[in-house]
Amino acid sequence: MIINVNLGLRSYRIIVESGAVATVGAHLRELGVGSRAALVSDAAIGSLYGKTVVRSLEGAGFSVALVEVPEGEAAKTLAVAGQCWNELLALGLDRTSTVLALGGGAVGDVAGFVAATYMRGVNFVQVPTTVLAQVDASIGGKTAIDHPNAKNLIGAFHQPRLVLVDPAVVRSLPEREYRSGVAEIVKHGIVLDADYFAEVERDAAALCARDLPVVERIIGGSCRLKASVVERDERESELRHVLNYGHTIGHALEAATGYARFAHGEAVALGIVAEARLARRLGLASDDTVARQERLLAAVGLPVTAEAIDTDAVVAAIGRDKKARDGRVPFVLAPRIGAFRLVFDVPAADIRAVLAGLAA
Amino acid sequence: MIINVNLGLRSYRIIVESGAVATVGAHLRELGVGSRAALVSDAAIGSLYGKTVVRSLEGAGFSVALVEVPEGEAAKTLAVAGQCWNELLALGLDRTSTVLALGGGAVGDVAGFVAATYMRGVNFVQVPTTVLAQVDASIGGKTAIDHPNAKNLIGAFHQPRLVLVDPAVVRSLPEREYRSGVAEIVKHGIVLDADYFAEVERDAAALCARDLPVVERIIGGSCRLKASVVERDERESELRHVLNYGHTIGHALEAATGYARFAHGEAVALGIVAEARLARRLGLASDDTVARQERLLAAVGLPVTAEAIDTDAVVAAIGRDKKARDGRVPFVLAPRIGAFRLVFDVPAADIRAVLAGLAA
Fold first, then answer.
1. Smallest CA–CA separation between B93 and chain A, in Å?
2. For chain B, what percent of residues have pLDDT higher than 70?
3. Whole-prediction pTM value?
4. pLDDT tens column, A175-218
């Protein structure tokens, strides 16, 4: 499946195809970029697919070096970005060169930030290897590193030149990481496309069993939805906030628990449950709309309840939301499946009530 | 004088007006941005104009804090950028907030980089206080910090929302810094506009005497030329290289002398002399075209000769030029006043010859 992301001069293609990791070189050559490249990855993913990607690039005439970053969120620091800049300079990369990210969301975030800022921006290619990165993080040009006091505080919008999604690679992910990524798939269905939501409902069992044709179709569908949002609001001025569904409370749950208790997708699943109920409390959504969301999350093995949530800490974290505008935090709410609405000034009492309701 | 920089959604105005530093608040309010702002400046400039700008912003209803950075190139480090990010976060700046740069090119570069990367980009306003910054650095969205091994290596394109040029402030600059900035004015005339070049020739004495109406007209004319280039090539894909005239050799002269011997504009003046003669050596330019450039540079008090240049070091520095494409360094050459041509693969022997010729 080929999905075009139409952004004028910054347009690019998302290629969703089993075996795509072995075809990076040929696809990169089509872009007419310079001959030098750096492949950013972590030790775990690099050992699984690094050689395949390097061989593909070298076979297409590129001179490529591997730049290793730490695994997970530890990659998203200024120190790691600084080491990457050093390595790109030492490798002689210039403005025509390409930085490739091979890995999950964290690798893509830091590699994208480095590509966005090295010589004021060089070519960037995403080869995402987790469900989260394939359906969400790799598409749309959001790059970032963390500040000690705020996740993703430092970053830039820098669109990739190409996104290569190989659905076969997510079949070997640890169970918890695989399911965590499925939370973003459910999110896309809820706020963007009722038919797609129904497709995921129908295929939930096959998706959990990682049946390859189903995984490829569902992931491709989610990439298409994400791309359509990015096309209509590249810089997150308004519409793109829709992708934040479940994340206002989800991010706050992660922050309030030190990013240690929940996988990102687990926090998003709980955020979706809480925000679905918030829409019902505010008279925007029906019981059935809320119930369908909870049922699908549970069906794909994601949490819909959580004990011992520190409500004060979560409310405080919401107050520091990076998407606040002059102090007002926007909530994305779903009045029905396949639709959304941006709501400011949600009463704190309602937020507290839905947080308390997460306890079983 | 108001100059529109037409860049679609990223369009903005350059306002060239004596006394403009006292009108920042009113102009910023017109943009409809959020109520919080940070004014980035150094101790010297801050003490001269900081209070005026802060008063203007507060008078227009903004909550503003001063963020002090070191003077000169020492501001352009990752450590300083890191401190700025910390302060913006502590001040509660969000995506609707504004970062203002009050100072010369270095302050604008680091403040612009911080604005480009804080929360993936916030509003940015330039209030340039040197000739160099007013006619060149503040316009066009190039932001950067230095890498220990390469100037401006880390940066981003991030257009300002507004550029406020107050020509009255440059009348109090130290003589050497004032003249250094005039090198960019001469550069604009040579490669972009023969009539403007003739205007600067005619008004050279008044420009050196800092006669205010002449300074305002010449600076305004130079801003207009810079804006027209930025409009046609925002991301420096081709045309914008024209602004690098005199800089390929000029930057290399600075690098080869440890950024200690020459002011930037002095190195650019010598670079113009050398590159003018390079064009003649390659059969592209006449003796008269070369002589007029040298005469005007001398008339505005800029150097046209330099003893004891280490040719090997300069040639090596040219080889590390950030604008190289897959190892090939582009030279901008002027076949006649008001015109330019991009030339790749200039023979090293010709570069060595014009460098040797800089000795009187």
1. 8
2. 100
3. 0.93
4. 999 999 999 999 999 999 999 999 999 999 999 999 999 999 99
Q: What is the sign, positive or negative, of the torsion defined by CA atoms of A68, A73, A77, A79?
A: negative
Q: Which of A27, A76, A161, A264 is catalytic?
A: A264
Q: For position A298, what pLDDT does the model report?
A: 98
* Residue of B85, B89, B142 with shortest CB distance to A120: B142
Spatial distance between the Cα atoms of A243 and A236, rounded to a whole number of angstroms: 10
Annotated domain spans of chain B = 2-170, 175-357
- Residue B327 CB: number of other CB atoms within 10 A? 12
Please determine, for residue A235, whether its predicted confidence score (pLDDT) is greater than 90.
no
Contact across the interface for B119 and A155, Cβ inside 8 Å: yes
Tell me, yes or no, if A244 is annotated catalytic. Answer: yes
A225 burial via Cβ count (<10 Å: 0-12, 13-18, 19+): buried
3-state helix, strand, coil in chain A (%, to 5): 55, 15, 30
Task: Considering only the beta carbons, identify the residue of A149, A154, A325 that sits closest to B118.
Answer: A154
A287 and chain B in contact, CB less than 8 A: no
Q: How far does A148 lie from chain B, in Å, by closest CA?
A: 9
Residue type, A150: A
Answer yes or no: are the C-beta atoms of A242 and A231 closer than 8 Å: no
CATH topology for B175-357?
Dehydroquinate synthase-like, alpha domain (1.20.1090)
pLDDT in tens, A133-182: 999 999 999 999 999 988 899 999 999 999 999 999 999 999 999 999 99
Q: What angle do CA A292, A296, A300 make, to 5 degrees?
A: 175
Q: Is A142 on the interface with B (CB under 8 A)?
A: yes
What's the rounded mean pLDDT across residues B35-57?
Answer: 97
Q: What one-character DSSP code corresponds to residue A165?
A: E
Residue-wise pLDDT tens digits, B79-109: 999 999 999 999 999 999 999 999 999 999 9
CATH architecture of A2-170: 3-Layer(aba) Sandwich (3.40)
